[in-house]
Design a protein that fits this description.
Distance between the termini: 99 Å
CATH class of the largest domain: Mainly Beta
Structural class: alpha+beta
Number of domains: 2
Helix content: 25-40%
Length: 121
């Protein structure tokens, strides 16, 4: 009496390495796609935010993680605290890590002029 059928036993032993690689190829491909579409851009965005937070200076407009807009009034060297004015004469101290974006002002000359409709004569 056989405990394991011959067909079942043959599928486990003697398989080529190419067949086992072919089984893992879709998983490797999926990981590669996720890395280049999701993971890598997120890492680059985090690196750029970290660089801009370290270069933050007085007068920069910032957005906190809570959605509060403010202007940097004072940065403390060696500390992660930043003093931000959120309204006239209202200043709060926030941590650098809670600043989610630095708003770059658009110069008047760089702003796109509104499209004017063509005149029909």
């Amino acid at each position: 009496m056989h405990l394991i059928s011959p067909a079942y036993a043959q599928s486990f032993g003697g398989g080529s390495s190419m067949a086992s690689l072919a089984q893992f190829a879709p998983l490797i491909l999926i990981f590669g796609v996720f890395y280049f579409i999701l993971i890598r851009p997120q890492q680059q965005k985090a690196k750029a935010l970290k660089a801009s937070l370290s270069a933050m200076k007085r007068g920069d407009r910032v957005v906190t993680a809570g959605g509060i807009l403010g202007t940097v009034q004072k940065t403390r060297e060696g500390s992660n605290e930043v003093e931000v004015e959120i309204a006239p004469n209202v200043r709060v101290t926030v941590l650098r890590e809670t600043i989610s974006a630095i708003v770059k002002p658009v110069a008047a000359n760089d702003a796109k002029p509104p499209a004017t409709p063509a005149k029909v004569s």
